[in-house]
Specification:
The chain has 180 residues and is mainly beta. The chain contains four helices and 13 strands. Helix 2 links the parallel strand 5 and strand 6.
Length: 180
């Protein structure tokens, strides 16, 4: 199973969106070099307010480009980096991968999936009504989160658009993704 990096984004300041870059460098155990969310402990403001000493399981945010077409059908215009992701992918069912899946990205970088992004109200600040497109309840009442996945960096390296992503599933039984 493999996919492709379609865009990379980072921002050294707290901002909802992240500008696209020609490349980003992942740092083992930290995240994206120069990104405001990089660090051993949590950097997302809501998590810091709860407990600033908890481990950062949200070092690198990945989002599937296919989501942009899906929300586009509902009238929303979203492009890579707009929802704060670091790596935009194509050709992978990110949301269907289990916890502990390893993604080898490009020639060097390796990340391990920790869980689902828990989208917040800032998404509606970006485009009113968009939050209901990326988090909602299905007919059975189950909460569905589509705003990407979170990961930690196991091996650092440079990541560029066009890089191949190779998937290595963990030994079973597989645990489905939950919010982190």
């Amino acid at each position: 199973m493999s996919g492709t990096v379609t865009a990379v984004s980072s921002n050294g300041e707290y901002s909802f969106t992240k500008p696209n870059r020609a490349s980003i460098r992942l740092l083992a155990g930290l995240g994206v070099e120069g990104d405001v969310h990089a660090g051993v402990t949590v950097k997302h403001r809501s998590r810091v307010a709860q407990d600033p000493t908890q481990p950062n399981l949200r070092q690198v945010h990945l989002m599937h480009e296919e989501l942009f077409a899906e929300v586009g059908e509902a009238g929303f215009a979203v492009k890579p980096g707009d929802l704060g992701e670091n790596i935009t992918t194509s050709g992978l069912d990110l949301l269907g991968l289990p916890v502990g899946t390893v993604l080898r990205i490009g020639d060097e970088a390796v990340v391990e999936i920790t869980g689902l992004r828990n989208p917040c109200l800032q998404i509606d600040g970006f485009q009113d009504g968009l939050l209901k497109q990326v988090v909602f309840r299905d007919e059975a009442g189950s909460l569905i989160r589509k705003a990407g996945i979170m990961s930690v960096v196991r091996v650092g390296g440079v990541v560029c658009p066009g890089d191949t992503i190779t998937v290595e599933l963990p030994d079973g039984p597989h645990r489905p993704l939950d919010r982190v």
